[in-house]
Specification:
Elements (H helix, E strand, L loop, with lengths): L1 H22 L7 H15 L5 E4 L4 H4 L11 E6 L2 E12 L4 E8 L5 E8 L11 H4 L24 H23 L5
Antiparallel strand pairs: 1-2, 2-3, 3-4, 4-5
């Protein structure tokens, strides 16, 4: 009986360990999202050959940034030994779901382009229009953006547009923190 209980306890310990390792592992980028990310970099920077080098941010510094940085969402774009720019891959809430977006930065941390990569709702798709998204081009790290003032609204996509504006504003502030700490040098 005692031996049977030990095996049950060992089984539960193995199960719980495996569960926690899988449940709290850093999420990986799906193949579809990676393809869209690579395409956004390729077309924005007009590159064929490039590498996306993950930028690691320690937990303490991450606490001082408005955007969550870690895992696989912040990259240095390199071609050969040269840094061409930076990429932030994020998720933002829409009405009932989330959408994946990317913000591409020049080496001086100016927004070169922003793009909605995957939008998962029927309503609010206007937020993905390049005409609307071009408002973010030229914004610099450290700037704060306000929906309806710095960034025009969109009828029919109010929630997603506000969400995208706040997300880009947060990453601009976060990039300034990283730059001030010499993480991006």
């Amino acid at each position: 009986m005692l031996r049977e209980n030990r095996f049950k306890a060992l089984g539960w310990a193995v199960f719980c360990t495996a569960f926690f390792l899988v449940a709290f592992q850093m999420p990986k980028i799906s193949a579809k999202l990676q393809e869209k990310l690579d395409n956004a970099v390729r077309t924005t920077f007009e590159l064929e050959d490039f590498s996306l080098i993950p930028i690691t941010v320690d937990a303490a510094l991450n606490q001082s940034t408005p955007s969550e940085l870690g895992g696989e969402n912040l990259f240095r774009i390199k071609t050969g030994e040269s840094t061409i720019g930076f990429v932030y891959l994020g998720k933002a809430p829409s009405l009932k779901n989330v959408f994946d977006y990317v913000v591409l930065f020049t080496p001086d941390l100016t927004v070169k382009k922003s793009k909605i990569l995957i939008y998962r709702e029927d309503h609010g798709r206007q937020v993905g229009s390049q005409r609307w998204l071009q408002q973010f081009i030229g914004k610099k790290s450290g700037e704060t953006l306000t929906y309806g003032e710095d960034i025009d609204g969109i009828s029919g996509a109010t929630i997603s547009a506000k969400s995208m504006t706040m997300a880009v504003s947060n990453i601009l502030e976060s990039m300034k923190v990283l730059n001030d700490q010499h993480i991006l040098k």
